[in-house]
Structures are given as structure tokens and as C-alpha cells.
From TrEMBL:
Membrane topology: Multi-pass membrane protein
Primary location: membrane
Pfam family, one: Na_Pi_cotrans
Chain ranges passing through the membrane: 6-27, 47-74, 86-104, 111-128, 134-153, 174-199, 248-269, 281-302
GO biological process terms held by the UniProt record: sodium-dependent phosphate transport
Entry superkingdom: Bacteria
GO MF annotation: an example: sodium:phosphate symporter activity
Keyword Transmembrane helix on entry: yes
Compartments in which it is found: Cell membrane
GO CC field: plasma membrane
Protein name as annotated: Sodium:phosphate symporter
Keywords on record: Cell membrane, Membrane, Transmembrane, Transmembrane helix
Amino acid sequence: MQFTLFGDLVGGIGLFLLGMHLMTQGLRKAAGSSLKQILRTATRSRLRGLVSGTLITAMVQSSGVVTIATIGFVNAGLLTLAQSVSVIYGCNIGTTMVGWLIALIGFKIKISALALPLIGGGMLLHLAGRGRLAHIGFALAGFGVFFIGLDFLKGAFAGIEQHLDLSAFGSSGLSLMLFVAAGFALTLLMQSSAAALAITLSLTASGAIPLAAAAAMVIGANVGTTSTSIIAVLGATSNAKRIAAAHVLFNLITGLVGLGLLLLLAPWVNHIDAARFDLVLLLALFHSLFNLAGVALLWPLTDRLVAILEQRFRSQEEDEGRPRYLDETLVQMPSLAIEAMAKEMTRLDQICSRMAREAISSSNGDTSHLRAQQLGVDQLAGKIGAFCQRIAENDISSEVSGILPTALRLVRYLNEVSRLSCLLPGYYDRFEVIADEATRRDVHQYQKASIALIDACEIDDSVDRGADSAHLLLHQLERQYQSLKTSILLATTERRLSPEDTVQLLDALSHIHRLAEQAEKVSRYWSGITPLQHRDAAHIAAASPQH
């Protein structure tokens, strides 16, 4: 008998988790790229961010998925840290919808009457439908599996009070803390607060544990949701760690609020008559109330919280060799991944442009600073290349498939800019000892023209410089380069320059010319990795009211 009970319990938890997984994956894929647009437009104010976080979490049925997606949106530059914090608030309210779903449907109707038709209809829709419709069918089937798992849990816990009497655990602080720890441990082990909540509600419905103890388990499960975001940001970017910290702080504070209320009310709570009141509904209500209380408490302090978080986890941002925008949470959403990669490449381009300007214009022969920057560029370029490979491992569109090789090409050009910048300081002394005044002046003008081209080619999100203007500047620089080479060779034949100086000078000018060519190629091919951004911008412009 006990073995059968254990089998039903483990099987019920497994089916519940499987149903949650299928439902979450189906709904996430059905939302597709529109999820990005929803969050982008729904977080223009803090209140909208709260509402959107609540609704999206209630729709997807997973606060963990929305939290990880929010981390990805911040890394892609679609959300600010302040906006993301309000979304995190909403996620914690939205996750209480699972409790209401279980309380209002799972314990009120005959499960098989709802679950089996959902599984059959959902899979039929998944097989017969295409695109979004097929994903919705997958989610419906997961919804049915979710309820079958819940039915097994109900059956496993029915009569369990005869074998496991926990009523002795009253309303003392130590007892409640033990149940908080139990709720946290269940969520940590199963990586699902919904599963921990389902177990808690089933135990309450069976009468195996007092209501106060069940409420303490709900608090523990709520705090346990932070484990998903903590695991997700191990070794991740600074923004990811800040959002995870906000999530942890919010859940700890709300947990303390809920525990404080429970300690005050526990003696009264345990005497509520189960014959008159629905204890499962009361638990779902308690779960929502202490999360709402946490939002009310932290809402006025959000600006201060954001300011504190922005001062933390700065080491990764100070190290230019570490990505700021690339994050493993994005690779499952190619359009977001491309945008994050474009932002990272913009940063890489700006680093390389700075190196090029410094190398061309400086007369300081100390190359240690440039070498240190080159190491960072090499590391960052490698990360971008690996990120491209991770994106390609997924089911991607032909548009994204065409972007990835172009991105790798641009990374190669930028790497070459970095390498050439480190070679130029070896020729500084030749620039300084040019005997011929006219040649020295021409070389100086060529250096200035090269820097102007570097400036024109530098990628800047706020300015559309245009590849055509950069290409025109390169043509002008090419004519200037050929003219300068001719004048140098002429000066050499007229003995105004030594042959040794000529060789070194022409070699240095060749390096500068090649550096400028690589920078222009980046500007020319840049639009090839941003079609998704241009398309989204066009959609937004088309949707905006005309004046």
C-alpha cells in the first residue's frame, strides 16, 4: 500500500512537471517574437511593467521563464533595469495564478472530464495545425497533463493523514520556519514553485497539515522561485545578476512580510472550520495577498533599489573582454539574440575604433595599453563567435541564418583593426624623424584623413552615418594614399628621404590604409546584421499615429 502511495506521489509530481513544461513551452513558442513587442510597448511606465509582468506570467504559467526572458530583454537593450524591476514585481503576482487555477478548477471538478479532452484536442491541433496554432495545441495538451498530474497528487494524499499526522505541528515560530524550509526545499529540488504549491494544496485538502503550516510552505515555495534565476545567472552578465538580485530581494522581503503576518494570525488560522470555509481557496488568497503587500511595500522604494543595483556587479562591465549583452538565456529566441549580438558588436566596433584613433595619432611608443585592449578584443570576438554558433544550433529562420555569417565576417574585420592598431606604434619613431618637411606635412594630413574615416565608420546607434559616405571617404583616402606614395618615392629618388626611411614609412602607411579599409568594410556590411531591427523599427513607425 505504501509503495503504491509513493508511486502515485512520484508519478503525479512527474506528470505535473511535464504538463507545466509542455504548457510553458507551447505558450512561449505561440507568443514568439510578439512577446518581445508586448514587453517593449507595455513597459513604457512602471505601472505598465507591473501589469505586463503579471499578465504574461499568468499566460505563460511560469515566473521563471518570464524572469529569464526579462534578463534577456535587458541584455538586448530592450528594457532598462528600472523597467525590468517592475516586470519582476508583476511576475511574482502572476505566479499566484497557478494557485487560483488549482484551487478553482483542480479541486472543484472531475479531472478526467477536462484533462483527457484537452490532451486529445490539443494533440490533434498540434498535428493538424501549423505555426502558432500547433504551439497552442501543444500548450493545451500540456494543460491536460498538468491536471492529470494534479489528480494523481490528490489521490496520493487522500487519506494520508492516517499515515502521516502533522497536526502536532502547531503555530509556534519554530514549526512554521520548518514548513517554510520544506516549501523552499521542494521548489529548489523540482525547480517549480507550481509543483510545490500543488503538493501543499493537496496536503491541505486532505487535512494532513494545519492551515498555518500550509501557509508557511506557500511562503517557502514563493521564496524558492528565486533559485531558478540564481542558477540562470551564474557566470552571466552584470545586468542579469542585477535582475536576479532584484528578484531575490523582492521574494525575501515578501516572504518576511508573509511570515510576519502568519506568526500573528497562526493561532486563529488553525481554528478556521474546514466545513465552513474552503481552505484551499484561503491558501490561494493568502499567496496573492502577501505578494501584493510586498509590491505595495517596495513600490515607493524602486528608484532607490535600482540605484543600489546599478552600483553592484560592475567588475564585468569594467572588463572590456567580457560581454555586456550576450547571454545564454537569449539563444532560444533568435531575434532577441541577434539584437543583443548587434549591441555587443557595436561595443566591439567602438573599442576597435578607439584603438585605431589612438594608434594613428599618438606619438607614444608604449604599446602596453594597446596590447591590453587587443587581448580584450580577442576575448570578446571569441565570445561573439561562440554566441553565433549557439544561435545556429536552434531552429532558425533563413533571415537569421543569413545574418550569422555576416556577423562573423564583421568580427574578423574588427579583429584585424585591433591587430593593425597594435603594429603601428612600431613605426612612431619613423614619423618623427622624417627629414623632408613636405613629406612630413603630407603624412600628417593622411593621418588626419584616416582618423576622419575611422570616425565616419564607427557604429553608433544614435547616429545613422551611412555606408555610402564612408565608402566615398575611402575613395578619397585611396587617392590621397596613392599620391602620398608617389611623393615619397619621388622624395627618395631626389635624396630627400633615405631608402631605409622610405621602406619603413611606406610599410606604416600601408598598415594605416589597410586599417581604414577594414573599418570601411565594417560600415559597409553592418546593415547586413540588422534587418530584424530595421523591420521592427519600421513596424513601430507604421503603427505610430501620423501628425
